[in-house]
Amino acid sequence: MGASRCAWLAFGVSLAISAGAVSLAFAETPASDSMPGRAQSAAQGTIDAAPPVNTGGTSDLRPSYGPPAPANTCSHADALGVSRVVEIDTTTGPEFGDQYLKTEAKFLEPGEVVLTFDDGPMRRYTLPILDALDEQCAKATFFSVGRMAIADPVTLQEVARRGHTIGVHTWSHKNLSHLGADAMKREFELGLSSVSAAAGTPIAPFFRFPYLAHSKSSLAYVRSRGVGIFGIHVDSKDFRTKSPGVVLRNVMAQLDREKKGILLFHDIQPSTAGALASLLAELKSRGYKVVHMVPKNPPVTLPEYDAIAEKSLKAKAQSAANAPLSKRAATWPVSGTEPDEAAPAAAPAAKPSSAPAAQRSSSKPFDWANPSNDPWQLRAFGHQ
Predict the structure, then answer these.
(1) Which among 147, 139, 182, 72 is positioned nearest to 280, based on CA atoms?
(2) What is the pTM of this model?
(3) Residue 292 CA to chain centroid, in angstroms?
(4) What are the DSSP E strand ranges found in 215-341?
(5) Distances (CA, A) of 360 to 66, 129, 135, 285, 287
(6) What's the burial of 243, exposed, middle or buried (CB within 10 Å: 0-12/13-18/19+)?
(7) Secondary structure of residue 209 in the 3-state scheme
(8) Which residues, 6 or more positions from 127, have their beta carbon under 8 angstroms from its beta carbon?
């Protein structure tokens, strides 16, 4: 994705805003100002301290082109809505969440929460989650996995169309703390370029480490790219249960202690898809307020990874055109080659083999995106 495609879109055109947009680091977003265009180069270096937070003033959040965002687009008078929009300047690589207590740039007041979802998109769960958010006029941040975004760009574009913020969760959910420098860079950069390409609109320079795990070198690299790093304060633990009720109790019990925070869910989990409507209603009944995070600037992607992402996206589109039933799947066939070498057509299904299981497994194509046979990948892509 070239720079010419990255004219900045303001987030929150359809937000319910009762208090104005606030900018993290240095300046409030004026009502008359439009958001800046794409940065010319990645920010260099790391920061010694968290940036200050500006919590003063009220103003409308306005897009950089088109009509101003309406002051309140929520048709449900009693909905949870969005109480504040916080604009975050990620130039210095700020960090948020309990994982970064010494450097965290704090912006939440007591009773305020940020809704975040990892690992998607996965259509059968992401869409019900979007519907539940719409019903309460609430907005969230989705940290998308690049491989999932390429697999279903239409659902990711629907996330953007409904006014939510889209961040990045690497290319294939590998633990970056276990990777060497080159592999770590590829996992991060290909994720950033792939989510950007699949979204079809500028995303946010917001990043969450898979498993909330990082090494000193991976943390320094992400910070040097001018990307905000987001941990969590409250964990729904939705991946551990199929019960929506358990998810609701997990979140509310932690909020009773924390009183505020960044909430973690996964939009690949049926427990969260089933729990969210009730959970949002519970947040409303207990007086919690939703804060929506938006970026000051879009991310800067690297051309070599943009080219890989674009080729992968075209290969996915061609595969879907050649095999319409593949549109129903959560992913698309992986031939074993790197994405910049992937053939556009889906590989034909293998015929059943009478060979022993050990022999059959040895001939299985190598899945380059999941070389360790990670159970997360297997579950996410419907193989378990």
Answers:
(1) 139
(2) 0.72
(3) 13
(4) 228-230, 234-235, 261-266, 289-295
(5) 57, 39, 49, 55, 57
(6) middle
(7) coil
(8) 155, 158
Q: Which amino acid does the sequence have at 115?
A: L
Q: Which two tokens stand for residue 318?
A: 């061609």
CA 348 → CA 205, 337, 364, distances in Å? Answer: 38, 15, 14
Which residue in 366, 381, 379, 307 sits closest to 336, CA to CA?
Answer: 366
Give the pairing type, strands 84-88 and 289-295: parallel
Cβ(166)–Cβ(202) below 8 Å: no
Looking at this protein, which amino acid is placed at residue 358?
A: A
Provide the residue count of the chain. Answer: 384
C-alpha neighbours within 13 Å on the C-beta side of residue 74: 21
pLDDT tens track, the chain, 384 positions: 444 343 443 334 333 333 344 445 533 332 323 222 323 333 323 223 333 333 222 222 222 222 333 334 677 778 999 999 999 999 999 999 999 988 999 999 999 999 999 999 999 999 999 999 999 999 999 999 999 999 999 999 999 999 999 999 999 999 999 999 999 999 999 999 999 999 999 999 999 999 999 999 999 999 999 999 999 999 999 999 999 999 999 999 999 999 999 999 999 999 999 999 999 999 999 999 999 999 999 999 999 999 999 999 999 888 877 765 544 444 433 333 445 433 333 334 444 444 444 344 444 443 434 444 444 444 443 332
- Give the bridge partners for 86, in sequence order: 22, 293
Task: Please give the distance of CA 60 from its chain centroid, rounded to a whole number.
Answer: 24
SS3 49: coil
